[in-house]
Amino acid sequence: MRSLTPPPGAAAADRHPDAPAPGTLLGSHYRHCFGCGSGQPHGLHLETRAGEGVSVTAEFTVRPVHQGAPGLAHGGVLTTALDETMGSLGWLMHVIAVTGRLETDFVRPVPVDTVLHLSARATGVHGRKIFTSAEGRIGGSGGPVAVRAEALFIQVKVEHFTDNGRDEEIQAAMADPDQVRRARAFEVNP
Ligand SMILES: CCCCCCCCCCCCCC(=O)SCCNC(=O)CCNC(=O)[C@H](O)C(C)(C)COP(=O)(O)OP(=O)(O)OC[C@H]1O[C@@H](n2cnc3c(N)ncnc32)[C@H](O)[C@@H]1OP(=O)(O)O
């Protein structure tokens, strides 16, 4: 099993000088993203804000479409919320990275209508590997922890998406006249 703890010699994650100021709403990186896009009716519609250093906060409201057991959020959906929140840390570092490995602890059941208060930070960088951790709390940022995760993101080139994504969506994203939106679809920073 490969560790999700930064190895000895790992560097601290660097916040890019042009990263959005703490408190800034990051918005969606891609309209059709299941985690944050407004174009996904059953998506999570996560709203993420830049924090200090390489950290972010986000809110996710659990809706009936996100159920697993009756009245409770599906664990995979909660993991998606954590994944998306940690994934947005790349925007503060100005790197493109994808999830390589992710481990979730489910600590408390999360009822429908709960607003999950998520926070994530980068814990270290080693070569192309970015180590991250996140947690989701119920009832406010000081509420009890319901879920927590650690993940390893791997930096990739934009070809990761253009070579592997379905052509239809790649062409549409590339053709977007909005330069920032086009860049963010692939999390490539302008
Ligand atoms: C179209 C629009 C798209 C928009 C996207 C926006 C961005 C996303 C937004 C956010 C959305 C949410 C986020 C999402 O949902 S991202 C979507 C989910 N993730 C993926 O689809 C990734 C699929 N996997 C791959 O493409 C490759 O396997 C990657 C690129 C990850 C690595 O293959 P690559 O050939 O490049 O790498 P390497 O083999 O040279 O290894 C390099 C180093 O990494 C270490 N390593 C590798 N794998 C693992 C592992 N599993 N556990 C532990 N360690 C691992 C490896 O040991 C080595 O370490 P070291 O030997 O150097 O020490």
Automatic annotation (TrEMBL):
Signal peptide: none
Region: Disordered, residue numbers: 1-22
Subcellular location: Cell projection, Ruffle membrane; Cytoplasm; Membrane
CDD domains linked: PaaI_thioesterase
Membrane protein topology class: Peripheral membrane protein
Entry EC number(s): 3.1.2.2
Domain Thioesterase, chain residue ranges per copy: 71-139
Reaction(s) this enzyme catalyzes, per UniProt: decanoyl-CoA + H2O = decanoate + CoA + H(+); octanoyl-CoA + H2O = octanoate + CoA + H(+); dodecanoyl-CoA + H2O = dodecanoate + CoA + H(+); tetradecanoyl-CoA + H2O = tetradecanoate + CoA + H(+)
Domain of life from the UniProt record: Bacteria
A single GO molecular function term of this UniProt record: hydrolase activity
UniProt keywords, alphabetically: Apoptosis, Cell membrane, Cell projection, Cytoplasm, Fatty acid metabolism, Hydrolase, Lipid metabolism, Membrane, Transit peptide
Pfam families: 4HBT
Gene3D superfamilies: Hotdog Thioesterase
Similarity comment: Belongs to the THEM4/THEM5 thioesterase family.
Protein name: Acyl-coenzyme A thioesterase THEM4
Organism: Streptomyces ovatisporus
